Amino acid sequence: xxxxxxxxxxxxxxxxxxxxxxxxxxxxxxxxxxxxxxxxxxxxxxxxxxxxxxxxxxxxxxxxxxxxxxxxxxxxxxxxxxxxxxxxxxxxxxxxxxxxxxxxxxxxxxxxxxxxxxxxxxxxxxxxxxxxxxxxxxxxxxxxxxxxxxxxxxxxxxxxxxxxxxxxxxxxxxxxxxxxxxxxxx
Amino acid sequence: xxxxxxxxxxxxxxxxxxxxxxxxxxxxxxxxxxxxxxxxxxxxxxxxxxxxxxxxxxxxxxxxxxxxxxxxxxxxxxxxxxxxxxxxxxxxxxxx
Lengths: 186, 96
What we know:
Chain A is of the alpha+beta class. Chain A has helices at residues 3-7, 23-30, 63-80, 111-128, and strands at 16-17, 37-44, 48-49, 52-53, 56-61, 85-91, 93-96, 100-108, 131-136, 142-143, 184-185. In chain A, the strands form three sheets. A five-stranded mixed sheet of chain A has the order 1-6-8-2-11, with helices on both faces. In chain A, strand 3 (48-49) and strand 4 (52-53) form a beta hairpin.
């Protein structure tokens, strides 16, 4: 059995959850005697998006596919970065300002690989997981990214910005970027 | 909201339709989270989305932003969709 396999959470533990997320859970999942660095990312609900005040975000998932997709992402990164351990959780349901929507952790022998793996993990999660959010606030409910996607059917409009390729950075139009809270354990 | 139904992995040999799931903004436009879409013979993912947009013209302006997943995995437009498959309309994702 490879050392990576032991770091993967049990298959029956859902990674897409309606319960509050625990940073300790992902950090403990990647903690290992051979790891000298643990990088984490926590995406939190912000009080505004593109000028609109936000009081609540309602997250929805295509649950079974989101679980499959996050498993694929973890497997890809394990294959691409041997020696790195990674873990991630995503929350769904109604979240208030300040709540954690997504939590990622990556451990590696040294900090460079840990930061790279953690960044790749959150970028792929944001680009590929079938999860959506509806903003609530004074301007009414609004599905993030949906109305931006509307165009006349005969208008040749490049929607490359709305495709879901890995590696797309997290500030593309329609995305809801979050305060980065990096923790570095050495 | 979590869509909890299991992904249908096996193809029903007598199926004459696909189970079409719609999420977020696509569900609001469609007016339903799930519909049965008649499909007698296999077609490509692109042809299936054309068919959905013809039957539900409100979705047409969003066509270029929607991706398709078949039985829980993203597909390329030339990939095949068969009767009995579970097909999901995937609007621009916004996790995180």
